[in-house]
Give the backbone structure.
Amino acid sequence: MTELNKITHSKQKWESEILKTTLERNPERKPDFSTSSWIPVERVSLPVLLSEEQYMAKLGFPGDYPFTRGVQPTMYRGRFWTMRQYAGFGTAEESNQRYKYLLSQGQTGLSVAFDLPTQIGYDSDDPMSIGEVGKVGVAIDSLKDMEMLFDGIPLDQVSTSMTINAPAAVLLALYIAVAEEQGISNDKIRGTIQNDILKEYIARGTYIFPPEPSLRLVTNIFEYCSKEIPRWNSISISGYHIREAGSTAVQEVAFTLANGIEYINAALQSGLDIDQFAGGLSFFFNAHNDLLEEVAKFRAARRIWAKIIKEKFKAKNPKSMMLRFHTQTGGSTLTAQQPDNNIVRVTIQTLAAVLGGTQSLHTNSRDEAMGLPTEDAVQIALRTQQIVAHESGVTNSVDPLAGSYFVESLTDKIEESVWRYINKIEQLGGMVRAIEAGYIQKEIQNAAYKYQQEVEKNERIIVGVNQFTSKNESMIEILRVDPALRKIQSEKLQKLKAERDNSQVKQLLIKLRDAARDEKVNLMPVILEAVKAYATLGEICGVLRKEFGEYQESVVL
Amino acid sequence: MAKKIRILIAKPGLDGHDRGAKYIARALKDAGYEVIYTGIRQSPQAICKSAIQEDVDFVGLSLLSGAHNELFPEVVSLIRKEGGDNIIIFGGGVIPNDDISYLKKKGIEAIFTPGTPIKDVINFIEANKSRISH
């Protein structure tokens, strides 16, 4: 009898001799248990016994293929993850103040939130921007705003993440231009640009152009970064918003990695070599409340990505195979009811991200189900990370949950289900086709609908919402953005247009138009020239809108 | 047989958070109403046009970006201007409590904030359906 058979045999004995009487006396709370993503959970997991060869293939060591146990050999024993709170609202001046505050509180990286007009390539004075200027992030119309945003923040001392997708090339160019003005050379700037357009079609919604020219912009950025700004992550392939839209943990990983495959195919097609850019690909995941499922999810994601890069794309450089990721705690898990409870949820989610080996983390504030967070709420969120880092002890051992019977079996199950989706998407002709067919959106919506129905039927308990409710809800203060902001930004734009060299701007916009028409041209250098001449975001995106057309959502219900 | 109640679920503004809007649309459909969903990033003009053309009885507006105080009242006034006098308009999303009374004054008759059970929305529709002109 093998060791495993012996254990299975002993388990049967335990079931008939001990478990049975307990179940007869005290039945379990429900007939079936599952994770938050409906993966069945056994009562007691059995040991996963591995030979040396199996151990090396499935887990290996941290910092080594397949990176299941982490991308660095020492993980948080070396240094903690980057604590990076996503922030930005109102004008560049206000956001600059918030960044300086966060840095003074021990935050180690910046993460810029742009308002929706900026994210969709409209200037603040565009009629499409009414009501939205400065609301969910900072309004950036031109280099003038960007100079103000980073005023007094030396860009060689911070790493900056920018959540920007359709106009990513423009915002990256603006950042480079500010760094140059500060006298900082390109090889000294560090950060990440989200630049993940596919998930915008799937879940987040700030697309501008159709997939084909959008993918060109994405790969233009890959190429530019690999040559000009080597310490910059050229994309953050994001499952976060897919999960927020209601996907399961498995779908989050599967659709994100399938997006990654699509980007790689586009880059290879444009003539890049896999090892030239794959090391600059980074990821962004969600952390929800089902702690062990989330840890297993992160571990599975690393293992699958390493296999994809090595086996499918034949990369040679181990750095290309490392799935490095940022995490944000789950916004959709926050409740407007009893908002203080959200602090506890965020703590669990922080543990999930850290035990899962994240490289950086944003913790949500307790008041975000109601609006933008106040400074006090953001401070508690940052303190939560600091407490987990310095007090919880979970950072002292690398991948401390490895070898947990349950976590390892869940990691395997998630991996299997993810491969099934990845293969299915490949059969459909890749991610762009799958999105155009509405397949991805439908899968997510079905999961979101099922989840919400369970909440409605009280089959899934949300504390303070459908159980343990209280009559007297505490009123909490939220941050207000000045509604006059659009006017302020519009006046700035008028002044800018009166002061700059308009004939130069006009010339550069024509140059951009011509470049857009020639697929072989990398648009980054042309855009950089235009932003330096104070062409506005809306002007640059306007030219590209005209050349590339606009994406029309296929509404799936 | 009475005509089925027709509901337009619409997303004004620029935010792409459509999980709630899609859930409401599907749940109301399952509850037996005729539901049309606009998709994201619709201008107030486009929403008004759909509401009038589709001859709906209710319009539900969903917004999570904070632009509700500007955009919800704009939709109401356009619909009234275009002759949709009897269309009942409600809203939802991330709406701070302090804004709800202002929006009600502007003709958005109910605001459903996060965590609202679907039965509350259905109760609202049922309580008001006698007001629609059939």
Summary: Chain B touches chain A through 36 residues (CB under 8 Å). The CA atoms of residues 2 and 61 of chain B lie 25 Å apart. Helices of chain B lie at 19-30, 44-53, 68-81, 97-105, 118-128.
